[in-house]
From TrEMBL:
PANTHER family the UniProt entry points to: 4-HYDROXYPHENYLACETATE 3-MONOOXYGENASE-RELATED
Signal peptide: none
Keyword Ribonucleoprotein found: no
Listed InterPro entries: Acyl-CoA_Oxase/DH_mid-dom_sf, AcylCo_DH-like_C, AcylCoA_DH/oxidase_NM_dom_sf, HpaB/PvcC/4-BUDH, HpaB/PvcC/4-BUDH_C, HpaB/PvcC/4-BUDH_N
Binding site for FAD: 210
Organism listed in the record: Pollutimonas bauzanensis
Residue span, HpaB/PvcC/4-BUDH N-terminal domain: 26-293
Name the record gives this protein: 4-hydroxybutyryl-CoA dehydratase / vinylacetyl-CoA-Delta-isomerase
Any one Gene Ontology molecular-function term assigned to this protein's record: isomerase activity
UniProt domain HpaB/PvcC/4-BUDH C-terminal: residue ranges: 300-498
Amino acid sequence: MLVTSDLREREETASARWSRFHPIVTGEDYLDSLRNRDIDLYLFGELVENPVDHPIIRPSMNALKATYDLATEDPELATAESPLIGRRVNRFLHLVESAQDIVMKNRMQRRLGQITGTCFQRCAGLDTISVLHSITYEIDQKHGTSYHDRYIEFMKLAQANNIIIGAGMTDPKGDRSKRPSEQDDPDLFMHVTRRTDTGLYVTGAKAHMTGGFNSHWICVMPTMNLSETDRDYAVVGLVPADAAGLTYIYGRQSCDMRAMESGDVDKGNAKFGGQEALVVFDNVFIPWEHVLMDGEYEFAQEMVARFTAYHRASYVCKTGLGDVLIGAAATVAEYNGVENASHIKDKLVEMTHLNETIYSSAIASSYEAKPLASGIYMNDAMLANVCKQNVTRFPYELSRLAQDIAGGLMVTLPSQQDFENEVTGPLLKKYLKGRSNVPVEHRARLLRLIENMTLGRNAVGYLTESMHGAGSPQAQRIHIHRIMNIEKKKGYAKGLAGVSAHASAEKK
Ligand code: SF4
Ligand code: FE
């Protein structure tokens, strides 16, 4: 138990916190920014000494590095002019001020999916800052608070330093039949433990935090609607990733030990991977300048609804992964000499149709964006939920078709070491040959990539994250039910059928 004097030592000012950050320009600067941080990160029951060079962790950092590299290589796509600081900033830190900004966000997300073949971990933070613009404004309008100014000041520094903001949204939730304030253990939802003249303290945990450790700051926010008894749970705050009281516990992923092996063939995608972590907050201090909600519980539901509208369309990222998978399946078919078979062509058409159906719902949602009271734009919630519902299903069918085209060799292929062995290597190169002009290794690499995306490490990003990220499938169905306006639709039908309200009353 920490005594008050220990806690006081955590009370850093906002400027002291910012002083630890230096502007990031290149992808290499980003990797350097993650070195030598004083952070407790556990993986396989041990504190990790050098996370940046850890073979399991580094691919997840490379995926975020790609968001910086793309800003240099394609500034039109991955940067935008920021009125806050009067220069171009990374699009992941840009406030969406038009429908076109959200469309461009989606295009960038698809491109990064094509580049990385996995989750590049930066979109939940982007969607969070979009939500906070409008929510802080609306809380201030109602309560006379000054959250919006604090938010703007933070965003200016965030843009100038080109940092990554992680979204700490999902609480562990404990007994789902109980509200936050009813839980036997109050820490199962993040809550305020004390308030002082300089700020407040929070305790709790944020689960499945995408890219949590790879971020520079974490924005904590409520995970669900709250009532008056949950007032201490209605907290939004900005926390540096190395704040005192934080512990990171790295999530295991399928086939993660392949990253520890020598050679890159069996890894399938040796360069890029995702990251999820459980981040525990033990009395973490947040100075008032970085508190953006404290007790205004009635805004929690709308905040979550707006976040999900943004983030469920951000799952357009998976169309970039779909492009990779379709390309891998088509290449394997070519290496096998079956690219002209009509059923192969048909399967590739089906895969493309599914992938573009996801894209169409996301991009339509963004084109339908409307301004909120603060001036920021929000994409259409119905189409965003339809997009995410598509994403919970179609990547599974795309994966089934890719595995169908790949054939069983994808899961019976011997290891890279067997290919390199002087006895087995020549045998494998003879008997696993497809088209004579294609090296066997190329065939193996493509098969391993499909394995990686549909069964291995990046199946986390392509499949299970598609299922549960931004809310599990039922969450979208509940939202669709809430906004599908069935009465209006019944009215259309009754009007055409000649069943007026008056006529039906008469018949009774
Ligand atoms: Fe971005 Fe997609 Fe990863 Fe979410 S799942 S952070 S939208 S890449
Ligand atoms: Fe996500």
